[in-house]
TrEMBL record:
It comes from Thiomicrorhabdus marina. Residues 11-231 form the Orotidine 5'-phosphate decarboxylase domain. Substrate binds at residues 17, 39, 66-75, 125, 186, 195, 215-216. Catalyzes the decarboxylation of orotidine 5'-monophosphate (OMP) to uridine 5'-monophosphate (UMP). This is Orotidine 5'-phosphate decarboxylase. GO terms for molecular function: orotidine-5'-phosphate decarboxylase activity. It comes from the Bacteria. Pfam families: OMPdecase (PF00215).
Length: 236
């Protein structure tokens, strides 16, 4: 039997969008922490909570806590501290919460010896121009992404969540020293679901994404381990 090739710095963050802790756990038990990182979002966190996140970390996984905080500065600062105490690798806020909120979150992490990466969501990958228009924003998603990414950088955060379609622009405008985490990743031929601004895994890496968030194309695959292996192979 051939040994799996271990990733030095796994680029795939699997979105654990499961309705129960048991469902998520039986899925995770098939995975190797050298081959992927894990993302815990609102659905799983609501049913499984901090202890589940700590259990994933104890199994050796880097965990991105994707709760997309958006609130007054004090509340968000306390929330990112709570995330840091869980030992997560990455946590996020919404950039549209503004610079005061983002700076408060960043400052709140200063007391931690090894703080998590702090990134901000720009424009959700499920949104397109008509969705922004509905909010009174008569601009293309990429313009709003650039505006919010510049605000995030100026607020001292480590990076943003954006679609891979904006990565080339952000690398040109903001540079290489900024973490670009891209959901809306779809291997060729897979269901798009509710995503709108999508890209394939190799194209996203080629464009300059730092990490690829991938959920359903792996979690709903007939053989999730094989689906992850195929994606990792396509990135080499
Ligand atoms: O702009 C965003 C921000 C976060 N997400 C999250 O990523 C995953 C994507 O899952 P798929 O099944 O691969 O569509 C999901 O947890 C979202 O909450 C995003 O899609 N877009």
């Amino acid at each position: 039997m051939t040994q799996p090739i271990l990733e030095q710095d796994a680029k795939v963050l699997i979105a654990l969008d499961f309705a129960t802790a048991n469902g998520a756990l039986s899925f995770v038990d098939q995975l190797n922490p050298n081959e992927c990182r894990l993302k815990v979002g609102k659905e799983l966190f609501a049913v499984a909570g901090p202890d589940f996140v700590k259990a994933l970390i104890a199994k050796g996984f880097d965990v991105f806590l994707d709760l997309k905080y958006h609130d007054i500065p004090n509340t968000v600062a306390k929330a990112v501290q709570a995330a840091a105490r869980m030992g997560v690798w990455m946590v996020n806020v919404h950039a549209s919460g503004g610079s005061k909120m983002m700076k408060a979150a960043k400052e709140a992490l200063a007391e931690f010896e090894k703080p998590p990466l702090l990134i901000a969501v720009t424009v959700l990958t499920s949104m397109q121009q008509e969705d922004l228009a509905e909010l009174g924003l008569d601009i293309e998603p990429k313009e709003q992404v650039l505006r919010l990414a510049k605000l995030t950088k100026a607020s001292g955060l480590d990076g943003v969540v954006c679609s891979a379609q904006e990565v080339t622009m952000l690398r040109e405008e903001i540079g290489d020293d900024f973490c670009l985490v891209t959901p809306g990743i779809r291997p060729a031929g897979s269901d798009v679901n509710d995503q709108k601004r999508i890209m394939t895994p190799p194209d996203a890496m080629q464009a300059g994404s730092s990490y690829l968030v991938i959920g359903r194309p792996i979690t709903k695959a007939e053989n999730p381990v094989a689906a992850l292996a195929a994606i990792n192979d396509s990135l080499r």
